[in-house]
């Protein structure tokens, strides 16, 4: 809209100059007005260009920010997928081993404890990721992970696990598995 107004004013100025050119030399007042209008039009055109360019740059910045957020979300989704699928794969392998140990109750118990530990650690890892994604401070400050349901039983020992849950399976001699 502004560019159209500037173009119309410029056209009007050229037409008025053409009209005064036929009547002889324009007076000093006419020349001053013409130069003032030309300067005003030039300034208006510059201001409109500057305004449009600033709006375009703001739009580019918003688009770049939205693209960066989308890329971050995609990377986070990949990380979540990798974490969960890796943990589920480990649980699946341990459960398959446990199924084959039905004749040895002690080994079966250890294998089931490993399945429980792996599932607990996977849950803890997911909670830590969610804590970071929700901006709840440091990865260890919120979403506390409860111990397994029967943590007092033989074969479970409180301690530092690799994923930070604080619980680890132990073997029958009390050693950490």
UniProtKB/TrEMBL annotation:
User: Which keywords label this protein?
Assistant: ATP-binding, Kinase, Membrane, Nucleotide-binding, Phosphoprotein, Signal, Transferase, Transmembrane, Transmembrane helix, Two-component regulatory system
Stretch forming the signal peptide: 1-21
Q: Which residues form the Signal transduction histidine kinase subgroup 3 dimerisation and phosphoacceptor domain?
A: 73-134
GO MF term list: ATP binding; phosphorelay sensor kinase activity; protein dimerization activity
Q: Does the keyword Membrane apply?
A: yes
Q: Which domain of life is it from?
A: Bacteria
* InterPro entries named in the record: Sensor_HK_TwoCompSys (IPR050482), Sig_transdc_His_kin_sub3_dim/P (IPR011712)
Identify the EC number(s).
2.7.13.3
Protein name in UniProt: histidine kinase
